[in-house]
Amino acid sequence: MKRFRSSRERPTVNSQINITNLVDVALTVLIMFVLVAPLIENGIAVSLPEASASKMDIRDAVNLKVAKDGAVYLGDRKVALPELGQKLRAMVAADARVPVNILADASVVYQDLVSVLDTVRRAGVVTIGLPTEVELKSKK
């Protein structure tokens, strides 16, 4: 008795991997990370403390002034940053707790202020103040 066999041939083995589904999943995960990343960075709600402005006595400290053009003044005398560092080191040697206030113009370039701060810190000053004008809030 003859068995009926189908006319189909035996399936052949496909040696290529179909990665279409893998690419779809990878792109979906990538899109999810791109959309969620900004939310993770800013996702923590922080309530910052409020502070009242107190009057700062700038007469008892060494006052450095940074002008609009980035020039640094020690008292009324214009000084270069290396010279400022030497003078502050001498002051710190005489009094290790000498306070320094940096009065910078509101339009000073940020890099100029950072350079002055860096010079003051390298001179060994530990108490640095940045006095500001008190902004009066108008009552509505």
Could you outline the blueprint of secondary structure elements for this entry?
Blueprint lengths: L19 H22 L20 E5 L5 E3 L2 E3 L1 H14 L4 E6 L5 H13 L4 E3 L11
Helix pairs in contact: 2-3
Describe this structure in words.
With 140 residues, the protein is α/β, with parallel strands linked by helices. It has a domain at 62-129: Nucleotidyltransferase, domain 5 (2-Layer Sandwich). The chain has helices at 20-41, 81-94, 110-122; strands at residues 62-66, 72-74, 77-79, 99-104, 127-129. Strands 3-2-1-4-5 form a five-stranded mixed sheet. The protein has three helices and five strands; from the N terminus they run H-E-E-E-H-E-H-E. Helix 2 packs parallel to helix 3. The termini are far apart.
Sequence of secondary-structure elements: HEEEHEHE
Give the uncertain stretches in residue-range form: none
Sheet-strand content, in percent, reads: 5-15%
Range of helix content? 25-40%
Secondary-structure-derived class = alpha/beta
Please report the total strand number as a whole number: 5
Principal-axis shape equals rod-shaped
| DSSP summary: helix tally | 3
Radius of gyration: 34 Å
CATH class category label of the domain at 62-129: Alpha Beta
